[in-house]
Amino acid sequence: MTQTQTPLVELRDISISFGGIRAVDHVSLDLYPGEVVGLLGHNGAGKSTLIKILSGAYQRDGGEILIDGEKAEIASPRDARDYNIETIYQTLALADNLDAPSNLFLGRELTNSIGFVDDARMEAETRKIMARLNPNFKKLKEPVSALSGGQRQSVAIARAVYFNARILIMDEPTAALGVHETKMVADLIQELKKQGLGIFLISHDTREMMELCDRVSVMKNGQLVGTERVEDVTEDDILSMIIMGKKPEPAAAH
Amino acid sequence: MTDNTADTPAPAARNRPDGLFNRFIKATEMDTRLLGMIGALALIWVGFHLYGQLVNGFGAFLTPRNLWNLSVQTASIGIMATGMVLVIVTRHIDLSIGSVLGFCAMIMGVTQVYILPQLIGLGHPLLWILAICSGLLVGTMVGALHGFLIAYGKIPAFIVTLGGLLVWRGAAFLVARGETISPVDPTFALLGGGPYGAIGATGSWIIGAIGCAAVLGMMWLGRKRRRGFGFAMRPVWAETFLAIAGCGAVIGAVLLVNAYYWPKGIVKRHVAETGITVPEGGLFISHGFAIPVLILVAVAILMTILMSRTRFGRYVYAIGGNPEAAELAGINTRWMTVKIFALTGFLTGLSAVVASARLGSATNSLGTLDELYVIAAAVIGGTSLAGGIGTIYGAVLGAFVMQSLQTGMVLIGFDAAIQQVVVGSVLVFAVFLDILYRRNSK
Ligand SMILES: Nc1ncnc2c1ncn2[C@@H]1O[C@H](COP(=O)(O)OP(=O)(O)OP(=O)(O)O)[C@@H](O)[C@H]1O
Ligand SMILES: [Mg+2]
Q: Which CATH fold would you assign to the domain A9-97+159-253?
């Protein structure tokens, strides 16, 4: 359906090593507007490392990144932001000593006419977006270290959603969430997808991935095992890709 | 106690029965840590005064003269402590500032005594300003160099500034081969305090009026903003209390510094020089606020604004809380480190102005051990060595605590050895109290 368009993101032949370890080994992926691409794989397969290259946290050793079909130089998280790439990191990346509004606007503080940070306006904005994402969230003035894992997660999600991303990277966004909150994130992903965002989603929950994603890519030991449309494969196919590191036999697909 | 608070219809009652004190704290939104520090300071002051009164028969501490001198002596450490807060909040340390102070003082001494008089002539009106600029510039550059080595060379701050401690003390010696350089320019000397380096009664009242206006203006603005966003507001009685307490403190300070008169000898000389007539009952000239104290207050206010109202300050706290998150949020943490150390260097230069002006000369040992007092002031003031936590007002109060202890012990006649024992113990004890406080407020 979308294959005639230019992809929003194209990762070509991306490689990166840490010391002797090839954490990502010649991986190519693409992402179209309004599409959710899932990344699956064992712990240490290289999923987070790959998306951190796109978000500017790591510098690739080889390969290239194309945004809207044009070569993109992403040398820092700031560059990624300039391309409207927003990331929810697996580690959440929050400053524990600051409150939710300060974290949400970190690096992009709202300022008043004389250039001072406008805490009141940031608090009001945070209140607004939280009312949409997690209506139970009330602790706006406390350091985020005083929040539960799920509440912290909703701060990280709010930060990624607030700034009108075009490309959204979510590294295990539901890891710390309860059933209700997980459902809310699933709804949010559907809504953002409708708005035309491209989303990279990382999760270990294969069933969830089958529901939310258009395509899933499986990684193992830094290499890409394969990318499949979810309607073409079963959950078991995906699981065997993760475990065996091999593409399903074409005959096995119905 | 009967457990019927839940059905009490009074709107003030929460689900938890609050004590009167807790209600008061909540309504005024006062920082309990601030109250604790002021309480500790009051305790130290009253303690020394009573000890003097009981043991020596004369309580010398709570006198205008002593408190005025205390404020002047605190200025130098206090100015540097505001910078040290930023350094410690970002999980670094600066061991070099005492030596950097000595180095800056020597540079300023040489500039105003040897270099500038030859270039623009002795007593030139710009001389003191140029001398100050040289000190501030050198301080900033040294700080920036340290910051650069730490951020881009990835050398731990402890090592860089430990090296700096030796390097700059040695450099201070080399500037003038260990000579003491004096006298400093007369205008420059005013920045160190003393009878002439204070702004007098009228000036102090003007400062007091501005201070009160600022307190009231800030409260009014804050209330307006809260109303604008529909946030909860402080009850009127709490606002009134804060206004009275704030203005009361300002007016009290003015009354205090104005109650300390010039010594008789200086008044006599002043009368001889100006030829004014001495009224019946003698001439009393108030000191008013000392200039170094006003510098400290200005620095503290500006640094507080920097830390709480600007992006720079927000980033300092973010880096301290989670350096990785700050980096991922697009903050250039390395450049921030350079800026933070440069700012601390600038403040050290400013401190060198105050210290050498007070002394009336520049010696290469000026500022020895200051780094330890400054770190102690910041830490006593609640700055956490784990990073991420610390306030400017805390550090300034911490500097006052340190200086009060020292002055107090001199006044009651403790010798230097006991002073060291006490100051060291207080530092450890204060940090222990701080840890307890944090654990309980969680
Ligand atoms: N900064 C780093 N320094 C050294 N090695 C690293 C670094 N980051 C990742 N690695 C290594 O790269 C490999 C891939 O790690 P990565 O975090 O990408 O895995 P992952 O697929 O996200 O796993 P998980 O499901 O546990 O999150 C691992 O072997 C890891 O040890
Ligand atoms: Mg990961």
A: Rossmann fold (3.40.50)
